[in-house]
């Protein structure tokens, strides 16, 4: 297992390209199961999560060719059973369930395990697919969904106790594209990644309106065809590097971003006193060294609110921002694995039932720390950029799940980082 050694104190300068979105790529790759024709998807990031998804699709029978960020995939003949040994490694593999059910009228997918950010139920996915006519059984750790007479359109409300479900919306939307009649999804997730998936499905011949809002209407069609698509920029990777620039930057430029997707992250950074500038097209952003910064209060919320996937990274920044900050995660109330590690580096953080109170200290200090979930690990890298000394971050595979070549990008910005093999 690799680890990353980050020598703190070097100012970041220069520019990097932001990769395609991991969280848009995963459901779009799964959606290729809905047709037997070839699909070409560009800007798929080379991260282990997308590699797992490609392995799952290959195991289902897809023919996959990949050259750098472009994936060419044909699901001419596919099995209806997703392999447990692959599915168990990634929660997002649940999003093969909807397309498999629609294409094969049967889907066997292992129930995803929990993970360090908390319980990961799928009740809302099942609520939606049952409403479309699927019968749901549970056997040997597998979900078995069947719809021998095909799926039929329905009115579905997908709201859960923690708000909308992103992959649940994706699953139901994908299944509904081949259902008989009209489906209306109320309380749908409005994340940009859901809209990107809908754009991909419409390019395949689906009839989807309202994606990107809380109400999505899908007119079922008999079949879908192949298409080509370029995945949207990864707004969480962009946000992570915006925080790196806010922490340690002295003129950092990020290319291939999408300003509209970054509004809540930009607002939080500006509220804390940082200066974020976009070009006219909104696809390049620059962060300049800031003057006075101050603590902020943050509450995560479904898009367009502040993203839970950026909560840990902002906590790392606020750990050395003067003043008190209060951070609440309404989506994953247990998503504070990074706090214990940040405290080992000298952060003044108190965690209390889904809320974190941070008192900014002047500087953190290096310590051997351990990555846990994808975004918590990114927060540790960020904190190490200005910590005194060299911080060793072990279990780097957590970061490699969702950040494409993070060490290379940090090196391009002048950071003093080195990836070493853990003996
Ligand atoms: C997606 O996960 C993202 N993953 C997550 O990013 C992100 O944190 C999450 O959405 C929230 O924005 C991908 O897109 C691959 P949810 P998803 O269903 O869809 C509850 C990352 O770091 N819920 O929107 O699995 C759930 O427990 C990852 O890139 C139910 O109660 O999350 C949570 O509290 C981590 N029942 C809330 O809803 C369900 O059936 C939102 O979860 C489903 C979810």
Question: How is the secondary structure organized here?
Answer:
Elements: E1 2-7, E2 12-17, H1 22-31, E3 39-42, H2 48-60, E4 63-67, E5 70-74, H3 84-87, H4 97-104, E6 106-110, H5 123-131, E7 135-139, E8 142-146, E9 155-157, H6 166-176, E10 182-186, H7 192-203, E11 207-209, E12 216-219, E13 228-230, H8 235-248, E14 249-255, H9 263-271, E15 275-278, E16 284-288, E17 297-299, H10 311-318, E18 324-328, H11 337-344, E19 348-352, E20 355-359, E21 369-370, H12 374-386, E22 390-394, H13 397-400, H14 406-412, E23 416-421
Parallel strand pairs: 2-14, 3-13, 9-10, 17-18, 21-22
Antiparallel strand pairs: 1-22, 1-23, 3-5, 4-5, 6-8, 7-8, 10-12, 11-12, 14-16, 15-16, 18-20, 19-20
Helix pairs in contact: 1-2, 1-7, 4-6, 5-6, 6-7, 8-12, 10-12, 11-12
Bound molecules: ligand EPZ.
Ligand EPZ binds at residues 23, 26, 91-92, 119-125, 160, 162, 165-168, 189, 193, 308-309, 331-332, 374-375, 402.
How would you sum up this structure, described in words?
The protein has 423 residues and is an alpha+beta fold. The chain folds into 2 domains: 2-18 and 233-421, Enolpyruvate transferase domain (UDP-n-acetylglucosamine1-carboxyvinyl-transferase, Chain, Alpha-beta prism), CATH 3.65.10.10; 22-230, UDP-n-acetylglucosamine1-carboxyvinyl-transferase, Chain (Alpha-beta prism), CATH 3.65.10.10. The protein contains 14 helices and 23 strands. The protein has helices spanning 22-31, 48-60, 84-87, 97-104, 123-131, 166-176, 192-203, 235-248, 263-271, 311-318, 337-344, 374-386, 397-400, 406-412, and strands spanning 2-7, 12-17, 39-42, 63-67, 70-74, 106-110, 135-139, 142-146, 155-157, 182-186, 207-209, 216-219, 228-230, 249-255, 275-278, 284-288, 297-299, 324-328, 348-352, 355-359, 369-370, 390-394, 416-421. The strands form 6 sheets. The protein has a 4-stranded mixed β-sheet. It has a 4-stranded mixed β-sheet with strand order 2-14-16-15. It has a 4-stranded mixed β-sheet with strand order 4-5-3-13, with helices on one face. The radius of gyration is 21 Å and the shape is globular. It binds ligand EPZ. Ligand EPZ is lined by residues 23, 26, 91-92, 119-125, 160, 162, 165-168, 189, 193, 308-309, 331-332, 374-375, 402.
